[in-house]
Amino acid sequence: MQRRHIHVITPGDHFSPRTGSAIPTVVHGLASAAPSSAPRPSVVVARGTYPDRYPSADVIEYSASPPRPRDRWGDAVCSRITATRPGRRREFAAPLAEQGDWAPGIVLAHNAPQAIPLVDPDVHAPVLYAHNDLLGTYSRREVAKVLDRSTAVVCVSAFLADVTRERMPSYLHDRVHVVRNGVDTTQFAPAAEGSGRDRLEVLFVGRMVPSKGAHVALAAMGRLGDRDVRLTIVGSAGFDATQPLDDYEKEIRREAAALGARARVLPFVPRDEVARLMSTADVLVVPSVWPEPFALTALEGLASGCAVVASRTGGIPEATGDAGVLVEPDDPAQIAAALTTLHDDSAALAAAQDSARRYALAHDWRRTWDTLAATLPPADRP
């Protein structure tokens, strides 16, 4: 029997379908996949965030303590002297202030090492849920102090788990577990009918920041000659299409315009529209130039029946499994070669798309929930 999962997300973050940011997506995916026999999960969310929230979990609201600029510098000093970060910990005091009123459960602190010491271990099992490399600025002494009372440290990929263990004292290594992300194979699914077109439709979806590699996808397009291929780039620097463009976004639009009708750029769109665009694309490119811990977008593309061409870096190969076409990061020539094959060989494209969907169906959120449930302590353990 499982205890209730209580998800604590970063103060100021949301639990809303408006955006595609990773942590709310993961929490919603896990909550939706919980079997009816499991206690209904809860999510601790700051009051005043997006009011249209996912229906998959009960929401526990609190009044957030706004970050103070001086806390960043104070934490930098204190972490070296006392192995504490009082400013960051103060931010998590508000989400956990009422934990004594909650039924005993498992507190999953998402990307929040500083929340772990604040969880009462006599009532709740504290678990760090790592979506990113969280301990890069921590000494091993501080890691021990912060995570000593943790029940487990969940990482979204084996790549991230290895990085996390390297930053820990050895006695904590066996608390690290890999729980790879899943995908909603109902929301993300192929269109009911094929497009019937000759043109290869290629899609990029992601934040418009250099690390995501939209510029690499555009450079690859410039190598394709006269092949009938169109690239659609979707995303903004943040999760708001109305924000002014920064320098990188302006450059992406200039490069896309230079390709004429072969490339177009759309700003950030809501999740439902992302799913629609993926369902009608032939290929999804994930040209990240940094070692992403997982890359949910790649798995969503597979579920949508896209052939996925992705960078061989970080946890991305774990997201695609054997269903993706992997290329070296920051290498437009390799992406262009993969797109050329998929354009010129319709059988290769169909095989990649079929493999994609089958892989995603075997890696949905229920599989992730089952893995997580097997990792966490049952109700009869502290």
Automatic annotation (TrEMBL):
Which stretches make up the Glycosyltransferase subfamily 4-like N-terminal domain? 123-186
Which superkingdom, per the lineage? Bacteria
EC category: transferase
Q: EC number(s) per UniProt?
A: 2.4.-.-
Which UniProt keywords are listed?
Glycosyltransferase, Transferase
Boundaries of each Glycosyl transferase family domain copy? 192-356
- What is a single Pfam family found in this protein's UniProt entry? Glycos_transf_1
Q: Name one GO molecular function term.
A: glycosyltransferase activity
| Listed name of the protein | Glycosyltransferase family 4 protein
Q: Which organism is it from?
A: Isoptericola haloaureus
